[in-house]
Amino acid sequence: MSASREPHLPPAQAPWVEERGDKLRITAVRTFLTVPQGCPYLIVRVETNDPGLYGLGCASDPQRTLAVRSVIDDYLAPLLRGRDPGDIEDLHRLALNSAYWRGGSITGNALGGIDVALWDLKAKRLGAPLYALLGGRFRHRAAAYTHVDGRDAEELADKVTAARERGFGHVRVQCAVPGCDTYGAAPSGAGEARARHDRSGRWDSAGYLRAVPPVLRRTRELVGDDVELLHDAHERLDPRQAGEFLRRVVDAGLYFVEDVLAPEDAAHFARLRAASPVPLAMGELFSHLSQFLPLLAGPVIDFARTPGPRPLGPAADHRRERAEAVTPNTTSRWAPQARALTGRGPWWASR
Question: Region (Disordered) spans which residues (predicted)?
């Protein structure tokens, strides 16, 4: 943990705290950095003066882990010590507004991790499962996908078949682009692995546009129609290329294409929707739920891809805004990132 700064003055309490006589208080907010499968995960633990009563949350940002940790350890932990952990909404607004400049994934991950920990703590205190506090049960199961990658369609088809044998009906397929630093496909050798580690590889959007669609179409031919195939373009195409890519993969019968545009190009989704029947997914890179609303209003996307309550905001807002955004008159569906049984999804997806 980074060194926490002790506040010079005791924090002000909400005006109703003494009135209701609740003596449960936050005594510490701690962070723990773990590295399962080589990917950093930042866990938050909110502790109380009731021995053994604490809440856990996830504040992971693999690219800016230490920055998120500093926000929690150096700024939010001193702010929350001594406060009532039951006042989740009040604490969230306090932490959010204390920064003055609000928003962004670093602050969002920090706030989201603490928020989930506070909800976990509240559920434990009440002796109820967390879903009971957020509206109750809705489904008895949810579909999950696994990920495969390969150098060509034949390798992908073999891996898709193996995934089907493990029980997966949805498989994300990523294929290599010759000579490029390819997202989602394993390096072909030590030289390519070293280039990726050093970030010295190059990316060729035109090469991706030429190489990937034929592989996806051929993979579909090899595996048949009884399995859903997904693909992540990882926002590496400009709007013109995105439209051409969707035209070329129509016959691949994809369940969805994810991040065919960068967040800053999201205004072009309406044009893509009008020109292509391929289902579209977007949202992994969003830092607030409000960014989904223009895309769902049309709707111009089919799946709102969310990394869970963080970095998008408090869990209660996550539930409320989801209800507002996805109405019975839209075809949009929320697709939390869950790669079940693979160990590659967020910690909350594997429970």
Answer: 307-337
For 273-279, which contacts have Cβ atoms below 8 Å and span 24 or more sequence positions? 273/298, 273/300, 273/301, 275/243, 275/246, 275/247, 276/243, 276/246, 276/247, 276/250, 277/250, 278/246, 278/249, 278/250, 278/254, 279/254, 279/255, 279/303
Q: 31, 26, 27: which is closest to 42 by C-alpha?
A: 31
Residues 270, 266: Cα–Cα separation, whole Å: 8
Reply yes or no on whether 234 is catalytic: yes
User: Which tens digit of pLDDT belongs to each residue from 223-248?
Assistant: 999 999 999 999 989 999 999 999 99
Question: Which DSSP helix (H) or strand (E) runs through 248?
Answer: helix 239-248
Q: Which listed residue (8, 41, 100, 234) is catalytic? A: 234
pTM: 0.79
Q: Does pLDDT of 307 surpass 90?
A: no
The whole-angstrom separation of Cα 26 and Cα 81 is 5
- Catalytic hit among 75, 170, 183, 288: 183
Interstrand relation of 41-48 and 54-58 (parallel, antiparallel or unpaired) = antiparallel
Catalytic, 8? Answer no
Q: Is the peptide bond before 311 cis (omega within 30 degrees of 0)?
A: yes
